[in-house]
Design goal:
seven-stranded parallel β-sheet, two-stranded parallel sheet, 11 helices, 15% strand, disordered N terminus
C-alpha cells in the first residue's frame, strides 16, 4: 500500500486502486458510512468482513456485495463488548492470512443539554464510540504486527472530534478521544508498517441523527435535526471515497468532505476561542436548516 506524510486528503475523484487479494474488516457496516465503504472496497477487489450490531443489516450488505460479484462475510458484533471484539479478531485471523484494512467505524450519536444528559448516556457513548475503537485496536493490532505485511487502520471520528459543539459533550468527548488515540497509535505504529488514520466526517446523510440518543432541548428538535442531515448531508459514498484514498495514500486526519470540515478545523487550530460562538449557535443553525 502506498504511503504519504501528508496531513490531509481531499475529496476528489476516488482513485483506481486495486485491492484484489486484500482483506478488509469493517464495523458498523450495516448502514451509512460503513455500508458505503464495504460496498466500495469490495468493488475494488477486497474481500469484506462486514460486522454490525444488527445481524440482519450485516447480512444484507454481504448479500449486496456477493450479488455484485464481490466476496463478503457478515458478522454480528457489539463493539462495546471487548470479549466479542477479541473473538471477532481471532475468528478473522483463523480464516484469513492477514487483515489489510481495519475500519473501526461503529458509533452512535448523542445530543442533549448537560442537565438532561444522564450518566448512562455518558457510559453508552464512550463505550461504543471510544472504547469500541480501543477494543478494535487491542484485538487487531498485535495480530497485524505478526502478519508479515503492512496494513491500514481507519478509525471513524467526526468533525465533532476536531471542534466543539454545544449540547454534544459526550459525543465530542468520545470523538476527540478517537482522534487523539489515532494520532498516538500512528506515531507508534507507522514505522512498523501500520498506518492509522482518524476519519472525520461532517454532516452526512445517514441514520445517525434519527437513531441518536437525544434528550432535553435536542429531543424537541429531533425532526428538524433529522431533516437537516437528510437535506444538507453529503452521501455516505463520498466519505467511503475518502476511506479508499486513505488506503492508497495514508493520512493522519481525514476530513470528509474536506470542503465542509477543513475550514472549521483550521479555524479551531488558529483560535479555539473564535470557534466558541459557532459551537454555541450550532443548534440554531441546524434548526434553520
Amino acid at each position: 500500500m502506498a504511503r504519504t506524510r501528508g496531513a490531509f486528503r481531499g475529496n476528489r475523484r476516488a482513485p483506481s486502486i486495486d485491492l484484489e487479494g486484500k482483506v478488509a474488516a469493517i464495523t458498523g457496516a450495516g448502514s451509512g458510512i460503513g455500508r458505503a465503504t464495504a460496498v466500495l472496497l469490495a468493488r475494488h477487489g477486497a474481500r469484506i468482513h462486514a460486522a454490525d450490531i444488527r445481524a440482519e443489516t450485516a447480512a444484507d450488505v454481504a448479500s449486496e456485495i456477493e450479488a455484485g460479484g464481490g466476496s463478503a462475510v457478515a458478522h454480528e458484533l457489539d463493539v462495546s463488548d471487548p470479549e466479542a471484539v477479541e473473538a471477532f479478531a481471532a475468528k478473522l485471523f483463523e480464516v484469513e492470512d492477514a487483515i489489510d484494512v481495519l475500519h473501526n467505524n461503529a458509533g452512535i450519536g448523542h445530543g442533549a443539554n448537560i442537565e438532561a444528559t444522564t450518566i448512562d448516556d455518558w457510559r453508552r457513548v464512550i463505550d461504543v464510540n471510544l472504547l469500541g475503537v480501543a477494543y478494535g485496536m487491542q484485538a487487531f493490532v498485535p495480530r497485524m504486527l505478526r502478519q508479515g505485511r503492512p496494513a491500514t487502520i481507519v478509525n471513524t471520528a467526526s468533525q465533532a472530534g476536531l471542534m466543539p459543539a454545544a449540547k454534544m459533550a459526550p459525543y465530542c468527548a468520545s470523538k476527540y478521544g478517537v482522534v487523539g488515540m489515532s494520532e498516538a497509535l500512528n506515531a507508534e505504529l507507522a514505522h512498523r508498517g501500520i498506518h492509522v488514520s482518524a476519519l472525520c466526517p461532517g454532516v452526512i446523510d445517514t441514520s445517525i441523527a434519527s437513531t441518536a440518543i437525544v434528550r432535553g432541548d435536542i429531543e424537541r428538535m429531533r425532526d428538524q435535526v433529522t431533516a437537516f442531515y437528510a437535506n444538507r448531508g453529503v452521501p455516505p459514498e463520498e466519505v467511503a471515497d475518502a476511506v479508499l484514498r486513505t488506503i492508497e495514500k495514508p493520512a493522519l486526519i481525514v476530513p470528509a468532505p474536506r470542503r465542509q470540515v477543513l475550514p472549521f478545523y483550521l479555524l479551531h487550530r488558529l483560535s479555539p476561542r473564535m470557534v466558541q460562538p459557532i459551537a454555541r449557535r450550532m443548534e440554531k443553525l441546524i434548526g434553520r436548516g
